[in-house]
Automatic annotation (TrEMBL), chain A:
Keywords: Membrane, Transmembrane, Transmembrane helix. This is Polyketide antibiotic transporter. The keyword Transmembrane applies. It comes from Antribacter soli. The chain crosses the membrane at residues 44-62, 104-121, 148-174, 180-200, 212-228, 258-279, 316-338, 360-382, 410-434, 454-474, 481-503, 523-544.
From TrEMBL, chain B:
It is a peripheral membrane protein. Its main location: membrane. Residues 6-231 form the ABC transporter domain. This is ABC transporter ATP-binding protein. Belongs to the ABC transporter superfamily. It comes from Antribacter soli. Pfam families: ABC_tran, DrrA1-3_C. GO terms for molecular function: ATP binding; ATP hydrolysis activity.
Length: 552, 325
């Protein structure tokens, strides 16, 4: 063992001035990371591959129907679908390939980008913050080795996924070159976000902040692309500001061009150079900005768990609301262009048979409201699980050793998380309204926007209550909540397309929430959601009162 | 007689198949400083967590001031302060803010006392908690505990991260607390630390108390290691009462002799050595590990079975088990 180590370490010792010295140990770290993540990465690969396979199955069904793809193409011209799909290449003679490229790339890039951001942060800033990488870096490991190794693992994961999913497309009878261009392009675009996350890791001291910044960049790219493509068929300048757009602009299966992918490569290289530049200008364990000194004594109000929870969560609330708010503001500002687009579509005879006479603008805004509620849902899960982090780090123990009852402690964290969730959701729809009103939209009214967001609050309460109940009874199972969040997303956006049965869709609390702009509120559903939330809260408090803290 | 500050009877607690506490007994009388001594993993922290109502005991009773530690946790917590073994603090609060938060939860804060403690422990309260070292985080918890006006202090290995100077400050404040009539439970794995401040000691091993009493009653446990270089023949030392495990070896300028001596017999040894022409002399207290090896003849075990508490004669265990080292 030691002989092997000595043998492999020897070369790096004999060339102290080589470029490789800051990268010493990279491959060993890559192997170590792959070992740590073998289950995690396998699940990601399988999920993405399954996503491709299931979508291909759906298009195969559409293709069997003589009018299937044509009506689908029509649907894809509506703003709501453009925001959830692509720039619309090949809509005039929609083929399975064109549909895959137009509708799937966005979701693949989003999924892979989330994977890339999480992996990069997990192996760089999170390791540094926990102090584990101090152990690693004290070994024969170069300064940049952990970052480079993290990127290499992300690259490997994306390459494997691109190869596998490309093979899935080819096996479905699609042209090989376009297939691999599409999957490789999606992977490259995702890597841009991974590289951006690496830059974020240099700037902030906290893993949470770094992944937050990464997701903010991803959110901005999502919105820019959507707005750009809605403004102009095949995308406006805004679409070209988004890496997601670059992947879509390769026009796979329609008129393939490779050069947009060069933008991805250039962006990745620039971001990596920036990250390396920043990394060599900061100390280990710290961010770019040195931690400031703080108050010598606490402000007068900091005297209980509620104030404490608020102190811990307020900056997350501020940045989440602000970031999402800007997104919704921008989205709102394009709403004025919607009616004209709808009119041109309305002339088409097939259109009305497919979509009916309903008010499409209102339907579209309803979907924007759903998005805003998803922002609230993500915040709800993340913040209600803060109690688990408090317990794991020993802080719950310290606080519960003071005259604070368990119910008061849990209730305080829950209240702050709940208020934050409501603020994130409602500020989202209000920002949407501000953007729309600024662009001259008067219908729907402010009150209708508020109602649209408020309708989701009972469902968000259910989600929060479920999170806390799981935490109280089976703390190890709390990651399930993120799976539920993903499932809610799928049900909310694709439930209809996938043809899921009602009972399966009903698992998502959001399924019980109507688009209040076009539908009436079912009082029974609202009461039902509230009742479920109350029961789950009661279960949570009963469970937390009787269990050990910390649960080992 | 007053109600004991802490009274634990036949306490059992298991985590899955692991028995953390296996019939523990522990009593701390009001105004008493009690040492709670045991090797790592013996169940000290688990006991403290049961006393704080954080863990629920499987069986047995844990009472503070006569009240049930689990059911009356909140009311009892008004009367005590706790310093965790591994202090973690809220990363975005400063040390000063954390101290204020914790002390305010227990009641009104004496600002002058807080300021004095900060000065004595040389703690900068304006730094964010995440930038504190382990020792400094411990100081934050200690300041918060000593600044509170409470009747009982529960301290879980409070000096683990402190330097010797700060350890002295800590010892000082434990004495102040005792003078003010407070009860203290001080868990530790360092015998000498407990000897310095404690009135009584309970020794815990594998979740069970194996010895308990006043320091004088436990005096037979404390033995010193002596090493000396003498010019005369050291064999006379070996026959003195209370001397164990004599080893001699030639050394520069005479003979090196090392042995253990019961503390109560140190006087006799000193006068005997005095006649032999001493070149160098060191005496060190035994570590807890040595003590356990000598008394319980174990290899700091994971086994659930605790040895009998009647205490085998020290010399027997010593001669029997030493050969293994």
């Amino acid at each position: 063992m030691s002989a092997v180590a000595a043998a492999t370490l020897a070369p790096s010792g004999t060339m102290p001035r080589a470029f490789g010295s800051t990268l010493t140990g990279t491959w060993r770290l890559v192997r170590f990371m792959l070992r740590r993540d073998r289950v995690r990465l396998t699940v990601w690969v399988l999920v993405v591959t399954a996503l491709y396979a299931s979508q291909l199955g759906e298009y195969a069904v559409l293709a069997d129907d003589p009018n299937g793809l044509a009506t689908r193409a029509l649907l894809m011209r509506t703003p709501a679908m453009i925001s959830m799909a692509g720039p619309g290449y090949g809509l005039d003679s929609y083929t399975v390939g064109a549909a895959v490229a137009n509708e799937l790339v966005l979701w693949i890039v989003l999924t892979l980008a989330v994977l890339s951001i999480l992996q990069v942060v997990r192996h760089t800033r999170a390791e540094e913050e926990s102090g584990r990488s101090e152990l690693v870096r004290a070994g024969a490991v170069g300064r940049h080795a952990p970052s480079v190794a993290a990127l290499i693992t992300v690259l490997l994961a994306n390459v494997v996924i691109a190869a596998l999913t490309g093979a899935v497309l080819v096996s479905a009878g699609l042209p090989a070159v376009d297939s691999f261009a599409m999957t490789a392009g999606s992977g490259l675009a995702a890597l841009v976000f991974g590289a951006a996350a690496l830059v974020a890791c240099q700037v902030t001291e906290h893993a949470r902040g770094a992944s937050g910044l990464g997701f903010a960049v991803l959110g901005a790219a999502f919105v820019l692309r959507a707005i750009g493509d809605i403004q102009e068929e095949h995308g406006s300048v805004l679409s070209w500001l988004s890496p997601i757009g670059w992947a879509q602009q390769t026009r796979s299966f329609v008129d393939l061009r490779w050069w947009p992918l060069a933008l991805c490569v250039v962006a990745i290289v620039l971001l990596l150079l920036l990250a390396a530049f920043l990394a060599s200008r900061r100390d280990f364990g710290s961010g770019l900005v040195a931690t400031r000194r703080g108050r010598a004594d606490a402000y007068a109000g900091l005297d209980g768990p509620f104030a404490l929870a608020w102190t811990q969560q307020r900056s997350a609330l501020l940045w989440t609301s602000l970031g999402l708010g800007v997104m919704w503001l921008a989205t709102g500002s394009i709403l004025s262009a919607l009616p004209d687009m709808m009119e041109t579509l309305r002339d088409n005879p097939i259109y009305s048979t497919v979509l009916g006479e309903g008010d499409l603008v209102r339907a579209f805004i309803g979907i924007m409201g759903l998005y805003a509620a998803f922002g609230g849902a993500g915040y709800a899960v993340a913040m209600s699980l803060r109690v688990k982090a408090e317990e794991e780090s020993g802080l719950a123990e310290y606080l519960l050793a003071t005259p604070v009852s368990r119910a008061r402690w849990l209730g305080a964290y829950l209240a702050v998380a709940g208020i934050g969730t409501a603020v994130v959701t409602m500020s989202g729809v209000v920002a949407l309204w501000v953007g729309a009103a600024g662009a001259g939209v008067t219908d729907p009214t402010f009150g209708e926007f508020v109602g649209l967001g408020a309708a989701y609050l009972p469902a968000l309460a259910v989600l929060t209550a479920l999170a806390v109940a799981l935490y109280a009874w089976v703390p190890r199972a709390t990651p399930v909540l993120w799976a539920l969040f993903g499932y809610m997303f799928v049900v909310g956006l694709f439930g209809e397309l996938l043809g899921l049965p009602d009972w399966a869709r009903g698992i998502s609390p959001f399924w019980w929430v109507p688009n209040t702009l076009v539908q009436d509120v079912e009082v029974a559903d609202v009461v039902g959601l509230c009742a479920v939330a109350v029961v789950l809260f009661a279960v949570a408090f009963a469970g937390f009162r009787r269990r050990d803290v910390p649960t080992v | 007689m007053d109600v004991p500050a802490i009274e634990v009877r036949d306490l059992h607690k298991s985590f899955g198949t692991v028995k953390a506490l296996d019939g523990l007994d522990l009593t701390v009388r009001p105004g008493e400083v009690a040492g709670f001594l045991g090797p790592n993993g013996a169940g000290k922290s688990t006991t403290l967590r049961v006393l704080l109502g954080l863990l629920r005991a499987d069986s047995g009773s844990a009472r503070l001031f006569g009240g049930d530690a689990w059911r009356e946790a909140v009311a009892l917590h008004r009367r005590l302060a706790y310093v965790p073994g591994d202090v973690s603090l809220w990363p975005n609060l400063t040390g000063g803010e954390a101290i204020d938060l914790i002390t305010r939860l227990r009641g009104p804060v004496d600002k002058a006392r807080r300021a004095e403690l900060l000065e004595r422990f040389e703690l900068d309260p304006t730094k964010k908690a995440r930038t504190y070292s382990k020792g400094n985080r411990q100081k934050v918890a200690l300041v918060a505990a000593f600044a509170s006006d409470v009747e009982l202090l529960l301290l879980d290995e409070p000096t683990a991260g402190l330097d010797p100077l700060m350890e002295a400050v800590f010892t000082d404040h434990v004495r102040h607390a005792k003078a003010a009539g407070r009860s203290v439970l001080l868990s530790s794995h360092i015998l000498s630390e407990v000897e310095k401040v404690c009135d009584t000691v309970t020794i815990i091993r594998a979740g069970r108390s194996v010895e308990s009493g006043t320091l004088d009653q436990l005096r037979h446990l404390t033995r010193s290691n002596v090493a000396a270089v003498v010019t005369g023949d050291p064999s006379v030392v070996g026959v003195l009462p209370g001397v164990h495990d004599v080893v001699t070896a030639p050394a520069d300028g005479g003979t090196r002799v090392t042995f253990d001596v019961d503390n109560e017999h140190v006087g006799g040894v000193l006068s005997a050595l005095g006649g032999l022409g001493v070149h160098s002399f060191t005496a060190a207290p035994p570590s807890l590990e040595e003590l356990f090896l000598r008394h319980y003849g174990d290899e700091l075990p994971d086994a659930g079975r605790a040895p009998s508490t009647n205490g085998a004669p020290a010399g027997v265990a010593a001669s029997g088990e030493r050969s293994g080292r």
